[in-house]
Amino acid sequence: MVDRLGTAVRCIRYDRRSYGETEYSPEDGWSPVADTVAVLDASEADTVIAIGSSIGGRTAIDLALAHPERISALVLIAPAISGAPEPELEPLVEALDAEIDAADAVADLDAVNRLEAHLWFDGPGHEGRVNGPIRDLFLDMNARAISAIDPGTSGDALDAWSRLDRITVPILFLVGSLDLLHIRERAREAAASVQNGQFVELPDSAHLPHLEGSPSALDAIAEFLALRG
Known about the structure:
Elements: H1 2-5, H2 32-42, E1 48-53, H3 55-66, E2 71-77, H4 91-105, H5 109-122, H6 133-146, E3 171-176, H7 181-193, E4 197-202, H8 209-212, H9 215-226
Parallel strand pairs: 1-2, 2-3, 3-4
Helix pairs in contact: 2-3, 4-5, 5-6
């Protein structure tokens, strides 16, 4: 995605605790929002367009509510949303979830990784849809995440779901048509509840369309940023 945006856009990326290669110590009460603010401060970035995927989308939303002065727009890719109602899972998703739990219980991390690739990267019922180097990249990144040291309990007990209408900056919601049903429905509902929301469903993509290199996802993000650049 950074390559698609080009050199005209300054991009700041960082690893959330338990993702990537950044080292950390377990700490109960740690805050994803505070971590993000620390990165912005260290990068001397006063106001940014925050882009977040999945749980990163949750952090971006929480940041916009806690520090609205730091955010000029949001790009949310299949975001989790703090305080959202518990979903009723589709039967296939529920079965995959149970398989993942069973594999995790016996510490079969290879099986967990394979099953999560089916659930999140391919999309439920589309196992093996995405192959080649990008699948290898997902498996490598996910292997790091599922084997990472527990960072501790987060102290951010926020309820963004009931306060989405307080976010006034432009927001682009992107979801793949093959993603979990409740994620697609929740993003559509969230886009309708904010003051300046745009919802785009991407064909033939699952939970991580940007990682797949979906042209429609990358184009939508680039166009959204260009309008605000």
